[in-house]
Design goal:
- The protein is α/β, with parallel strands linked by helices.
- Helices cover 28% and strands 23% of the residues.
- It is built from 10 helices and 13 strands.
- The protein has a 7-stranded mixed sheet, sandwiched between helices. A 4-stranded antiparallel sheet has the order 2-1-3-4.
- It is globular.
- The N terminus is likely disordered.
Length: 354
């Protein structure tokens, strides 16, 4: 029986073209989530009667009608995009592969969950949060990572909060999982704050950690671009440390500069004020399409462009910054989900005011 290989030319809605893609001959055609029209350019076969690697006349006896059907243009179905609450998307994982040890410990010792109840509890809250807004980081359980605690300066940050009475603000805090980790590790809860665009995520944080009547940290529902948010403005000049995990990369260059200048306003104008975090970067820095922000693009940095951005921020705000970065290959488990390419890296950073 012949095994068909279909050579495709895929034209995406954004105008880009992917050619020479191959799929099995069962016609289960993969489609980029941007939406695509798939045209079959050629059909080849490999049998024991046709030299391997050759393209040419079919010597076996495949169904001629089927071949004619395969050779016709195929209009791909409308692809689901980020923002759809449909769970039949690549960025919604039906099951957790594994629960990181620190999160398991946090949910057992801070939240009081029985070990065997943790997995089902995470799934239940995740699905509730998906209904608030279906961000890929929710669907793919990225919130389980406790990303702040993975950064090299974490011990320094914790020490500053515990011994120097300094304050930290978690920007775009999602469920406030990093806030809980800090408090669990000994930071005074009153010195740790979180902001989140969607108040529903803050509510789901209390549901996830079962601590509505326990946690004393303050959460603020705020848009970082809203200059009239009184609660956020009340923090101006008072936040010694800002955690910006998966935050800057949400915008294009211009808006990232605006955000960074706003962050400068939140911190004391003294040496040692710190912005730290991690985000998606690229070995080919530049603007790429973004599915949900108002400009339709986001800027992915490498270490050099990130440092250049902070130099621009310094010029605009009359400040100087020392930028420390690490640039690492992303975990392979995150590849192939429609969000990363072979050029994708994780950019980890700590930006100190001089």
């Amino acid at each position: 029986m012949a095994t068909l290989t279909i050579n495709l030319v895929i034209s995406l809605q954004d105008g880009s073209v992917v050619s020479a893609a191959t799929v099995p001959g069962d016609r289960k055609l993969g489609v980029d989530e941007k939406g695509a029209t798939v045209t079959i350019a050629s059909v080849t076969t490999s049998t024991n009667e046709l030299d391997e690697g050759k393209t040419g006349n079919l010597i076996g006896k495949p169904d001629a009608t089927a071949l004619k059907d395969l050779a016709a243009p195929v209009e791909a179905p409308v692809a689901k995009k980020v923002g759809s609450k449909d769970k039949d998307v690549a960025w919604y994982f039906k099951n957790i592969n594994s629960i990181p040890g620190p999160m398991q410990e946090l949910l057992e010792k801070w939240s009081g969950l029985a070990p065997n109840d943790v997995r089902a509890h995470i799934h239940r809250v995740r699905d509730q949060a998906w209904d608030v807004w279906p961000y890929p980081c929710i669907g793919m359980f990225f919130f389980l990572d406790l990303g702040l605690s993975l950064l090299p300066p974490y011990a320094q940050v914790l020490n500053r909060l515990r011994t120097n009475n300094e304050k930290l603000l978690d920007l775009g805090c999602c469920f406030g999982q990093d806030v809980r980790k800090l408090v669990f590790d000994g930071a005074p809860a009153e010195n740790v704050y979180g902001t989140e665009l969607l108040g529903g995520y803050i509510d789901e944080g209390y549901a996830l950690f079962c601590d509505k009547d326990k946690l004393k940290s303050k959460f603020i529902v705020a848009d970082i671009f809203d200059a009239k948010n009184d609660e956020l403005n009340a923090l101006n000049g008072k936040m010694d440390i800002l955690y910006a995990g998966s935050f800057f990369h949400l915008w294009d260059w211009e808006d990232q500069v605006k955000v960074a200048c706003r962050l400068v306003e939140l911190m004391p104008a003294r040496p040692g004020s710190l912005v730290l975090g991690r985000q998606a970067g690229s070995v080919k820095p530049g603007e790429i399409p973004h599915r949900i922000n108002k400009t339709g693009t986001m800027f992915q940095h490498d270490p050099q462009t990130f440092e250049k951005m902070w130099k621009e921020v310094g010029e605009k705000t009359g400040s100087e910054w020392n930028v420390v970065t690490q640039f690492e290959v992303r975990d392979a488990s995150a590849q192939g989900k429609g969000f990363n390419s072979p050029d994708t890296r994780i950019l980890t950073f700590a930006v100190y005011r001089l």
